[in-house]
Amino acid sequence: MSHHCFQTLEYEPAFLSLGEEYWDEVQAATFPQHILRFRNDALLPLMGLDPAKVTDADFIAAFGQFQGREPFLAMRYHGYQFGEYNARLGDGRGFLYGQFRGVDGQLYDLGTKGSGTTPYSRGGDGRLTLKGGVREVLASELLHRLGVRTFRSLSLVETGESLWRGDEPSPTRSSVLVRLGRSHIRFGTFERLHYLRRPDLIRRLLDHVIYYYYPHLLEIPDPKERDCAFYRELVARTADLAAQWLVAGFCHGVLNTDNMAITGESFDYGPYVFLEHYDLGFTAAYFDYYGRYAYGNQPAICAWNLEKLQIPLSLVMPLEEMQAALKTFGDRCQTTYFKLMLKRLGWADLPLELGRPLVAETQAFLSRSSISYPQFFVSLRQEFSRQWAVDVGHIFCESPTLPSADQKLLDRWKKIYFELLQQATPSQQASIPQTLAAANPLVILTRPQIEHIWQAIDQGDDWSRFTAALELMQT
Ligand SMILES: Nc1ncnc2c1ncn2[C@@H]1O[C@H](COP(=O)(O)OP(=O)(O)OP(=O)(O)O)[C@@H](O)[C@H]1O
Ligand SMILES: [Mg+2]
């Protein structure tokens, strides 16, 4: 067995040390083939590694062949799926590969997806399709670029098996993904412990979460007050996340409580969709018959999930305080939404009272017109010029004329944008291009674009579109 770079990391047994009540040790599958399809060099410095010194063979040995590291831990969890409690969950096709300190001093998880069966596979094959892996890499990297607090993709290895799936033409190709995030502890990790009637284990897990992921709260001397501060902060982080998805034009699709991280990060990119058109009722998953996880319903569902989390937490902390904290969710989500939306519109530090009409008008324009949600922001970034402040007629003057109904809506939008420009200070005006460039990547990954990328891989093993999209995100 050869030595690889990722063995030099000092892995920290944080989750392991919680004890056997929280995980099962598992083995990785042995795959017939290992082809490295994606390596995220941008993440290596955080791991203390120099990208120039990490070879593809290192990636394959570590994250395709799973050499030189143990134990791998399947994490135990339950969750509410589409509103129904499911006690037959847990890592069924992935495991916690290891935890390490980033150069920033924070603890990070490496977790797999598609690495083989575990005690929680329930008859599933424990695998991830290559298309699923490609989609997950694209989502995580674009969301990161759009400012969403998300798990990142570290590597994708194609593994040479044939898989059968109801939602993909089959047989279909296989892969294993490795993700990097703060924590894979889910709301459902707590829910399972309530189901088992184990307040002692909830207490231990909550202390663990605060110690590693909310360490600034350790300064609060009163333990009860500290617990409440934790829940308040989780509400705030989750409200921010819901706002970030909305602004990104992202519909996650399966916001079950087992897909909600206790750190407030976004992860698990299955049937997600980046919206083509701004529509609050849009649903991503074909099996979401009632629109539970519709684009515009994401804040409400996150609040629902936070409310469900009160059930296990109330075994160790006061319920009333959590109920009061949850009441702040709506305002927090809205405020974050306005701030971030204004950034996408070029305004980094506009007082909210001034910016609100522009956001409202943007929503009206995007929902009622036929304009593409992501294309609108790309066009804004590409066409904005200082001339816009001189005469309203310069705004989007290079764009092709729209159908008349759309044009009318756009004219109202232009008027408001122009008024804001006229009120803006010279320095505010000068910062607009930079703000637009930072908030609006040039990559668009709505359904047709992703299918276009996949088609080239599927039909000609052509990875150039995939690589180009990822490179464009990083510029
Ligand atoms: N092919 C499979 N084989 C075995 N178990 C599976 C498979 N696909 C999904 N599961 C299990 O079904 C449950 C729900 O799956 P879901 O799609 O939410 O999670 P996931 O995509 O597997 O992983 P994660 O939430 O870590 O991103 C989980 O317990 C998961 O492990
Ligand atoms: Mg999941």
Automatic annotation (TrEMBL):
The keyword Nucleotidyltransferase applies. Its EC number is 2.7.7.-, 2.7.7.108. It catalyses: L-threonyl-[protein] + ATP = 3-O-(5'-adenylyl)-L-threonyl-[protein] + diphosphate; L-seryl-[protein] + UTP = O-(5'-uridylyl)-L-seryl-[protein] + diphosphate; L-histidyl-[protein] + UTP = N(tele)-(5'-uridylyl)-L-histidyl-[protein] + diphosphate; L-tyrosyl-[protein] + ATP = O-(5'-adenylyl)-L-tyrosyl-[protein] + diphosphate. GO terms for molecular function: AMPylase activity; ATP binding; magnesium ion binding; manganese ion binding. ATP binds at G90, G92, R93, K113, D125, G126, R179, R186, D268. Mg(2+) binds at N259, D268. Keywords: ATP-binding, Magnesium, Manganese, Metal-binding, Nucleotide-binding, Nucleotidyltransferase, Transferase. Its cofactor is Mg(2+); Mn(2+). The active site is at D258. Signal peptide: none annotated. Nucleotidyltransferase involved in the post-translational modification of proteins. It can catalyze the addition of adenosine monophosphate (AMP) or uridine monophosphate (UMP) to a protein, resulting in modifications known as AMPylation and UMPylation. Belongs to the SELO family. This is Protein nucleotidyltransferase YdiU. It comes from Thermosynechococcus sichuanensis E542.
